[in-house]
Amino acid sequence: MHMQEKNKKILFFALLIFAIFSAFLILKTAAIYNWDISLNLLAMQFLKGHISLEPNLDLPVGDISIYNGKYYIYFGPLASIILIPAVAILGKSFPQVVLGIVGLIISFFAVYSISKSFKFSKVDSLWLSLFFVFSTVLFSTSVINITSYTVEAIGMPLILLALAEYFSKKRPLVMGILLGLAMLTRITLVLAAIFFFIEFIKKRLSKKQIALIFIPIMFFGLVYGGYNYLRFNSFTETGYGYHIQDPYPLSKNKEYAERGLIHIPANLYSFFVKPPEPILYFRDGFVFKFPFIKADPWGMAIWFTSPLFLLLFRFKRNLYYVPSLVTTVAIALPIFTWYSIGFAQFGYRYALDFLPFLFLMLIPSLQPKLSKPAILLITLGVVFNCLYIASLWDEYPLLGITR
User: Fold this and answer.
1) Which pTM was predicted?
2) CB within 8 A of 251, min separation 6: which ones?
3) I want to staple 128 with a disulfide (CB 3.0 to 4.6 A). Which of 115, 193, 254, 365 is the partner?
4) Burial class, 310, CB count within 10 angstroms (exposed 0-12 / middle 13-18 / buried 19+)
């Protein structure tokens, strides 16, 4: 038993070093193709007392809305608020992708804390942290410098921190503040509060505790509403209703509807079914060429990026399974009706919003300790992500293959 744990620890550190080295190569490769500074530009405007972007050559081509002749980023303000000190010192050239890296680090420790709360050993908790950081869509979203990615990569870790707090010290005010801050990245994250409300119904939270959770959420909701009103003369308009027309191919999707049932099949296909694209010697034939596959920018099924989630089909449950399931469905429903599907992406990046609750659903299928198949699935997922994220640009830095 002792030797087994020792081998598990050695393999963990070897895989962690491999993943960190790969992340460095992916960051370097991604920077060639995507160097977004939109969040920095908004932070600079905040310093000047403005909330709209300055109309100049630095104006981003995506993720912006126009209203009354002014340009706005249609996400919440938190990411740019966090960047204010760095931008004040280093200017707009500060790499905003640093927020994504910070999100990865926060997620690692939050998942470790959650795993320990469910009585996993230290080494198994480390493995689960490795899985969440390097074998889910969080990895690619955090290391690619695109504003929408970075906003998602900083919002979801706040949900993880709220859950880690719930399963440890259980301070309701702290949980509420974390949930409220998460909402200031993407409004859909407010639905994470459903989990805590169900916990109240299940009598695992008192009336006082649930009130202390929702007070900060309502406060930050008012802050977000005021921010929206200053931008769009409406408390509920976040900017999506005024966003500048998406370029091809997303413009074709939007012709059918911005949000509607018509988009559910494509989103479900991308999340549950879609495989990577084959690399062929000739378009008219079907002979595979090394390295055989590449990422499809329309997404890939979760089983490719995160094969550990296959163990969900064990259908094991605990006290938190149903609250997590209900919250996952509640968050996923509006996402699955959205026209863009997350294009372009590695995996299905919109899953980030409900990923913490999907992870909670997975835990009973992994207990009481990680099995050899679970370790194998984590390893395969980490290696897959490390090898193929850069294939979005037809690059494979680990294999020495470049354009």
Assistant:
1) 0.95
2) 245
3) 115
4) middle
